[in-house]
Structures are given as C-alpha cells and as structure tokens.
Amino acid sequence: MNTASAPDTVERTLEIIRKRTPAYGELTDRFGSLFTASAKVCDEVATKGVAVPEVDPARVSSGVPVLVGFDFGLWREAFALSAERLIPVLCEALELEDTAAKELAAVFSDADTILGLVRARIEGDLQHFENTSLHFDATPSAVLLFALETVCSPVLRAAVQSMGESLSSLSWDEGHCPACGSTPSISQLSPKEFTDLDQLVGGGGKKFLHCSLCGHDWRFKRNACPSCGNDDSETREIFYVDDVRFEHIEACHKCGRYCLNIDMREFEPRPDLDALQMGLIHLDVHAQENRLSPLTATLWNTVE
Fold it and tell me: What residues are paired with 236 via a beta bridge?
C-alpha cells in the first residue's frame, strides 16, 4: 500500500522521468520545484481544514459540477496562502523578467482579484482573463490563466480529497470533471485491486479520467472518447511510441482530439499523474504529428 506523502510522490515521479528519459532532465529540474511546492500547499491546506461544499447527487445528475456556484470566498485565506507560496516559484520556473514577475506577484497579492479569477475559471469565462490582463503591461492572459490554475489547483485538490466518498460515489458519465467541470489532462487504467475478501486481488484496468485542475479521478467508459463520446472502434485508435504499451495515445478521428493514457498496473508505487506528464511530451509530439489536438491544452502539450 502506498503511504508516501504527496511531495514525496512528486519527487519520486520526477526521478522516474530523469532516469527513463535523460533528455527531460532540464525540464524536470526547472519545473519540479513547482510541482513539489504545490503538493506541499495542498497538504498544508488539507491539514488546516477547508470548507467542503455539499454534494447534491440530484444536482450533479442533471449535469452541474459540484463547484459551480460555490462561494469561493470561504477559501479566501487558502488561495492567499497558495499564491504567497507558489507565485515566486512559478515566476522562477517560467523565467520571467523582474518587471513581469513583480507585476504577477502584485496581481496575486489581491484576494478579491484571485477570487474573481477563480470564479471565471470554474464558470469557463476565459474572456475575464483577457479583460483582466488589459490592466497590466507585462501579464498576458495566457500567463494569467496558467498562474491562476497554479494557485487554485492545490486548494481545489485539498477540497476534493476532503469530499471523499460523497464525490467518488457519484454517478457521472461525462468527459468533464464532476467536481469542477474541467476537462481531463490524462487518463489512467486502474492498478490491481486488493480486497479484504480472502485477500483477493482484482485485475484492475478500469478507466479513469484525471482532472486537469482539481486532480479528481472519475470512472469513464474505456471505449469512448472523452471529448465527443464517440465509441465507434472504426474511428478511434490507440498509438504507441517505441513499443512502450503502458503509455499510449487514445485518438478519436471523429473529433480530432487525443488524450494520453497510463496503465497503472505497470507502476508500483503510483506516480504523480500531473508531474508524470512532463515525461510524456514525446507522445504529444507524435499525436500532433498525426494532426490531432490535445483534449486539454497544458504547458507540456503546447511546447514548441
């Protein structure tokens, strides 16, 4: 059973990437501290306690994610803590010039600004980021969005973890997250399942989508596209690179989208799925060479 802390899991995952693909060493050195710092913030917020929204199964079953309409003001202090811890690390990882770094720090020193950006992100109002960035000289909307996601992600993760069974037991068949509504950045096949019944071990292999923002994992059909729901085997395809079959690309030729997939039955102990994506850029390159677009744009699958 994996009992490692989240920061330890991140560090172990970064080391896996370095050993398997030395070419990604510089990238993991540059951004690894950001993943580790984010994991520490998540642990700190969870330890202090975070207000947990009520999970209404009927509301969710009608297609409304749990955090839509939530009063994020209840997490004001948690967001401020996250911004204080992570913005300096982010500026260093992005190698921002002093002027841009100071401006970004100033933006995220204002709790009301953070709350407004969080609400806009959850509601899918990307125009709010465009409008907000117009007030600053050195902070384009893309950087503002990435910084906001960096800051709010560990807080949302702590909240999602606190929801526990009330969230994981929901009936949800959509390709976006039942907690925050975001699309998945990667999917996974579940590891072997240990039960208390005569110490039986199941085969695992159930498919779960991993939220790009709050980190929630929810069950999804193995033979369907998360983007458009297409389950036609004639228009869906799986790509492998270098015959590494436990890391692959699930492509849909109907909508032209793809999502990476990891078979957790081949990993022990479990890696951090978010950090692991830095070591899968070659899969993104292969998919995009085949004229496919990522289901969710991330820093790793948009690197040129």
Answer: 252
